[in-house]
Amino acid sequence: MGQRVERNYGSMKWESFHGANLAYLVEQYERYVEDPRSVEASVRTLFERLGPPPFVPTEVVSGEKVEDPALIRKVMTAVELAQRIRTYGHRQARINPLKTEIRPDPRLDPAACGLSEEDLRRMRAEWIWPEAPEGVRTGLEAIAKLREIYTGSLAFEFSHVHDPEEREWLERQVESGAIRPFLPPEKQVDLLKRLIEVEGFERFLHRTFPGQKRFSIEGIDVLVPMLDELIRRSVNDGVKNVMIGMAHRGRLNVLAHVLGKPYEVIFSEFHHSPDKERVPSEGSAGINFGWTGDVKYHLGAEREWEEADRREILYARLTLANNPSHLEFVNPVVEGFARAAQEERGRPGFPEQDVNRALAILIHGDAAFPGEGIVAETLNLSRLRGYSTGGTVHIIANNQLGFTTESSDARSTAYAGDLAKGFEIPVVHVNADDPEACLAAVRLAWAYRCRFRKDFLIDLVGYRRYGHNEMDDPVATQPQMYEQIQKHPSLAAQYARRLEKEGRISREEVERAEKEVEERLRRAYRKMKEDPPDEWAVMEKEAPVPELPEVVTAVEEETLRRLNRELLNKPEGFRRYPKLERILLRRAEALEKEGRVDWSLAETLAYATILADGIAIRMSGQDTERGTFAHRHLVLHDPKTGRSYSPLHLLSQARASFAIYNSPLSEASVLGFEYGYDVFATDTLVLWEAQFGDFANAAQVIIDQFLSSGRAKWGQRSGLVMLLPHGYEGQGPEHSSARLERFLQLAAENNWVVANLTRASQIFHLLRRQALLLGEHAERPLILMTPKSLLRHPQTASPLTDFTEGRFQSVIERPGWRKRADRVERLLLASGKIAVELEEKMEGEKAGERMHLVRVEQLYPFPEEEIRRVVRRFPRLREMVWIQEEPRNMGAWTYVAPRLRAVAPEGIAVCYIGRPERSSPAEGFSEIHDIEQRRILDEATRLTLTYTASKPGGKET
Q1: Three-state secondary-structure class, residue 738
Q2: In angstroms, how far is the first alpha carbon of the chain from the final one?
Q3: Rounded distance between C-alpha atoms, residue 327 and residue 252, angstroms
Q4: I need a surface site. Which of 292, 690, 767, 770 has the fewest CB within 10 A?
Q5: pTM for this structure?
Q6: Contacts 24+ apart (CB under 8 A), 414-420
Q7: pLDDT tens, 630-651?
Q8: Cβ atoms 783, 756 nearer than 8 A
C-alpha cells in the first residue's frame, strides 16, 4: 500500500479511502502521532500533505494526551462494522415476506465486535460515516441508520462490483435516500389502485375459469407497478422501444395491464374459439388462419405507449416477446430486439448505435436463473462490442419454488441471483410485500443504467399463491409453506390497511375501487360472450407461407467488376499481411475473360451487391471475420499497427451498413440474439455462422422453438441465414456433419429453405435471393450447409457469366447428358461435397457413359418437378441411386427416399449408397474415413447392382 501512496499521493484526497484501507491509515496515524519515524516514509508524506484522517478523534488531532487510548482501536472497529453492514447487511434484511425470524449474524453485531453502545455514543458519526445525513450525530446513531438502510425490506450487494466509481456511486445513492423519495399521498393511492387491478384480474380468472392454467402473478403482484415505473422513467428519458422477455408466471397480467391486451381477448382464449373442434380450450389459436398458434401464456404482444408530459406527448413501442416453455431462452432474443432497435443501418460502415433508443427488460424465474445455462451465456453478451445493449434491467420473479423443487435442491448458491455477481452486476433484493421499496429498487436500477450503461439485477422475493399452475396442488410437496401462504394477506390488502391507517384513503374508497375493477372485468366478459372478438386481432394474421417466387439475382458485369476493384482498396498507410495480400490480389483477375470466381469471392460479391441495393447486413459467429477455414477475410489486420478495417466498408456504392463480429464461444445465446435482431430489423440480412456445423447442437432450442416454428406458432417472420460448415474430410465425429437430417425433419409448411451447395455462383444467387425477399410474405430462414474443402476446390469456381446471366439452380446436372441420353441406366443423385467427388470420379470411368449425375442443391423445398423432368429424359433408366457421405440414418436419405420413390416411374428401383447406420456421425480416424469414402465412390460408379422391378412409385433395393 505504501508504494501506491508514494506514487499517487499528490492527487489524493481522504475521500479516496474507505473501509479497511481507511482503518489501516487511522491506525498508522496513531503511531505517527507518537513517533513519525515509526511509519513508512510514503505514509508519513501522506499525513504531512493531507493532515489527519477524518475519523481520528479530536484528542489525537490536537496532539494532546489521549484520555482513552483504546478509543482509536474502537473507531477502527466501528469503521469496519459499518463496512460489514454495507457488505453483509443483506444477510439480515427483511426481504422474505414469508420469513419473520432472521438468524443473527455476529459480523453485524456491535457487541460481538467488542463495541458497546457507550463506545459508539462517544464517537462522532462522521468518523464512521463521513456522509452521514443531518441529524445523525453519534457513532451509535450512524450504525443504527446504516442498519436501517441495509437490513430493511431492501438489501444490496455491491461489493463484487470492482469499479470503485460505480461502487461508491451505488453506496451514495442508497445511503443518501435518493432512491426512496417521499411518495405523495395521491401516488400512494394510485399504486394501491394498480395493485387492486392486478389482484382483481387474477381472482376473476380464478373464479370464472376454475382449473385452467394461468400461472398467476399473485405473490409478486408488485411486478406490474414495477414495470409501469421502469417504462415511465425510461420513456421520459428518451427510450422509444421497451423490449420485455418473461416466462409464464404473471404473463397474462402483464399482457393485460402493461401491454394493454383487452380483457375480452384474454377471456376468449380461455373460453371462446371460432372453431371449437379445431382449437382446444387450452387457448391455442391461429389454426383457422393458416398457422398452428400457441397456448395463451406463451404469446407476446405489442403496444404503442403514450403519456402526456408537462412539455409533450411521449411515445414508445412496448414489445413482450413470444416465449415457449424453454423459459430463459427468450433472453438473448430480447437482447437482439433491443440492439436492432438501437442501431441506425442506413449508412455504410458499422451501424451507429444509440443505447437510449431501446431498453431490454428480462424477467426471470428464481429456479431458472441459476439453473439454465442460457442465462449465463446471455449475461456474458452484455458488455461485448457486437452484442451490448447499454444495460438490461433484470428482475427475478422469485416465488422461492421451482414447480415442486425447493431452492435447496435447485441451486448451490445463497441467492437465486448470485450468478450475476460473476459479471459484476449490482444486485438488489427486495421484499415483494413492500411496494414502495420495490419502486425504489426500480429507480436505482434505471439510474444506474443511465449512468453506467450496464446491467442491473432486482431479486423480487415473493411467493406463489397457488401451485405451479392452477391445476396443481402444492400442499402435497410444500405443506408448511402453503399453510403459511394460505394465511398470508394479499399485497393489495396489506397496502390498503397501511394507507387506511395513515389516513391516505378510507375503507369505502378501497371497496369502491375493488367494485370498479370487478365491474370492468364483468363487462368485458359479457362483451366476449355476446360479441366474440376478432380472435387474435392483436396478432398478425396471414395466409400460409407461399412457394418461393422467382427473383432476379443476376448483376451486371460492370457493376461486379467495379465492386471487385473496390474490394481491394485499403486505408492510407495500411499494410496487409503479405501472405494474405497475395491471395487478395489474385481476386483482381477472377472476373477477367479466363478467370473464375471461387467461393470466398462469390460470397463477398454477394454481400457487396446487397449493400449496393441498400440492404444492411449483420453477420456473426465464433471466427466469422476470417472464417473458420480462413476463406472469408472480411476484416483485415495491419501486422505492424494492429489496425483493422473491412473492405466492405470502403465501397462507394454501398447504401447500408455492414456489421461483422467474432462472437463469444457460445451458440445458443448468439443464435438467439441474431434471431431477435432479425425479427425486429426486417430490413437487414442477418447471418450466423457456426464454427463447425454440428456446433449448432448447442443452439437446438433456438432452432426448434423459434427459428423453425416461430412463424407457425406466433406469426413471427424471420429471414435469418444459418451458415453451417458440413462435409466429411476425415476430421472426426464433431467436425464432419452439420446434422442435416435434423433440419430436414423440421422442414414443413415452407418454414425455411435447406440447401447444400457445390458452386460458388450458387451461394451468390442464394444470398441475394434471401436479401431480396426480406420483408416479403415469402420471407423465411435459410439453412446453408456450407463447404470446407470445397471452398478452394477448382470445380466449385464459377465463370463470370454465371453471375451476370444465371440464377440459383435447385438442381445441377452433369454436363453432356444429351449425348448419353439413350445409354443412361443409372441416375445418381447427391448433395454437397460428395457430388463433386462423384463427378470427378465419373470422368475417368468407362461406366460413366451409362450414368447421369444430378446435384441436389436445394433439399427443402424439395425440387420434385425438376427431378421428374430429369427422369423423363432417359428411356433406358433402371435405377435411381441416392449417394451420401453421412450414415444411412443421418443426412438426407430418410427425407429424400419417399420423395424419390414418388418421382420414380414404375419399374425403376430407388437405392441408397453410403455409410451404414451408425450412432456416431463419422469415423474417428482419417485412414478409416478414406477407406469408407473410396468404397462409396466405387460402388456409386460401378454398374453391379441387381435390379428389382418396382411397383408404381419406385422401390428401394
Answers
A1: coil
A2: 82
A3: 15
A4: 292
A5: 0.90
A6: 415/157, 415/459, 416/366, 416/367, 416/369, 416/370, 416/459, 417/369, 417/457, 417/459, 418/370, 419/369, 419/370, 419/375, 419/376, 419/379, 420/379, 420/394, 420/455, 420/457
A7: 899 999 999 999 899 999 999 9
A8: no
